[in-house]
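> @MW can you paste both from yesterday?
MW: sure, first one:
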Amino acid sequence: MRVLSFGTYDAEVHPRIRVLIEGLRTNGVHVVECNAPLGLSTARRVDTLKKPWLVPAMMARIVSRWVRLTRDARRYRGRHRPDAVLVGYMGHFDVLLARLLFPRVPIFLDHLISGATTAADRGVDGGLRSVVLRQLDQAAVRAADVVIVDTEEHRSLVPEDRRDAAVVVPVGAPRTWFAARPADLAARPADAAA
């Protein structure tokens, strides 16, 4: 099986996609990446919601990454077409592009967070912004064949008509996190470190 990990995710900042990729590879799945990191933190995205005049700059950044993703995705057409496309965390927009580029390929969306819920949690709630974010969440979930969430509670937030398409994959950590240990701790016997 061949899976294309796709989108503007940044695995260094948000390692969830790396965990999913490692899990797939550990289970014998061939995973390749088509990635153009957006370079915006969650805080910066929320700040954009608070300052709507920043939206055009963010959209320009998204479009520039999409141009690159579209160009790079050409490699994965025809006989090189993947069996599935995995759209990384915070891929609310990316899943729409993936659906356009790979219309007959199953799309898996790592929908770890809802844009509307995150905005509400960060104090950006109500009005037109909330409506737009809810619509974006719904469009993203509808564009995916499978919606990946981290808990049953988050699965319950998926629109009812798409809930059967949602699967729970708990949050994990990439192997490198377990290998990164202070030298003195690594030198101790295992029972002394516990």
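MW: second:
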Amino acid sequence: MTDIGTALKRAAAFGVLALTVSVGLACGEPESASAATPAVAAETTNAPPPTQAPTPAATPTLRPTPTPTATAPSTPTPTATPPPEPTPTPTPTPEPALADVGINWEPCRPNSAFECAFLKVPADYRDPDAGSLRIALNLHRARLPDQRVGYLLVNPGGPGGSGLELVESIRSGFSAFAPELVERFDIVGFDPRGVKASEPKFECGEPGEQLDLRRSIDRPVDTPEEIAAGEAAAGLCIESMGPVGGLLHTAYVARDMDEIRKALGVEQVSYLGFSYGSAVGVWYATLFPDSVRAMVIDAADNPVDAAADQAERVADALEETAPIAILLERALTACDSPECPIYNDGDPLGYFRQAAQKLHLVNEGASNHPDAAAYGVITPLYAEFLWPVLWEALYRLNEYDDPSILLEVGDFQWEDDGPRVARMPEHVNCLDDWVLHPEQSRETRLADGEVYQAAQDEEFPLLALLGPPLFSACAFYDQFAPEPLEGRLDGGGVPILVIGNHGDPFTPFIESEELMTEQLTNGYLVEVDHGAHGVYPNNSCVNQHVHRALLDGEYPSEQRVTCEREEVRLPF
């Protein structure tokens, strides 16, 4: 069998591991797993005052922000049915290749095709005196400069995914970008505030500290000791990072993006976001619609669930969980021949139920990782070519009491920093949830969680075998909830191409559909069935739609179009 670590690294490079797994109401979304971050050089300053961005219509009331300063760095397409003829949308003429007036780019490494920099941005956009953060950037310039369109900002997902690593994929055989974009865009990656090379890096206590607090909480949360533990668990990230810990939400990531645009010296940028990157894009378009030239979001999630009551909120959460349960069953039943290690005389589901009785061995063998078994089982669902990893892992566990493969898979998502890194997606999503739903009290959120967990166990028995998820402290974020959004998160009227995938378990199609139909005022939905998390650049029909939008500013003639499924032909 292919080496597990190699297979997962290839999967990450191929753009299918954009998330860290979590199942539950108001819990964290997965984080991208990828290669090491480029080394960081000393900081220099070279930033004239940028022009003031237009004031968005629907945005929290914020005071003027200080001028950003930029610094030197840290650090095959199958055929398919062509898409319908597009309707041109007026867009600005491609901007000239300016001198990146506010950024002093330097080679990331000697003789590197990539350039790196740091950009200082306000820590708190409500308080210009609150200091600054450093956002790590990298740049791959257009290979055909005479045909250059402009700047393309990108985000791989997470929260917690590294944009630097996404851009660095260009130099590998597993680029996240088709040649059409690499040839004609200056592609800019950035590590969002708190992520990887950006400073300060996310911290949330010492290894195991928060896990001990969360493990001390039994459902329902109804004793003074449990409430105190929940408050302490939620506050640990704030205590570790100081006030910056409460400023990592997506609204500020979007504002950081506009500081990048200003420092680049252009009036508009294009944007391509995957998974959680779709939320970043929608926030950016809503807050700064005049700054967007073109936008595409893939594996798109609807960041707003406007449910009216508990029954509707729980139903929405179950609807989001269902694709994971369905895909787990599909992955297991795909083991349909005697050569498959968990074939079990044609009953692989029965084999899974047997093996699940030993999942405690995975959790016991993990370091500060009480959900290792769930991570190990769910991670291979990101792409169909990883399913054999799951089969072999379950076989080793059941036959030999050997949890090593599931541990390796779980640790791959957990990463070296373990509990602190994996905590970031939940931390950011908890902050975002309070920004978008300040009307939901702590008591409401705790009650919703209880009802949801019971309903999930009943409706999805295979997932229930993975054990109850670790208690989420999101309900206790009312202690330092960010300023709520004023108005709707609707994309500001910007044309946005949304890629919705029926085969995506982690950002299910219904989320993309609801985003387009219920939130965006000018969305275009491309519907496809693709057996992985994220589609671009691995479907020729989708690619054509993406390239027409980003390169030419042309969107489909109808607001909803369909692309046929294509076999993913892996380059290894």
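> thanks! The first helix runs from residue 4 to 13.
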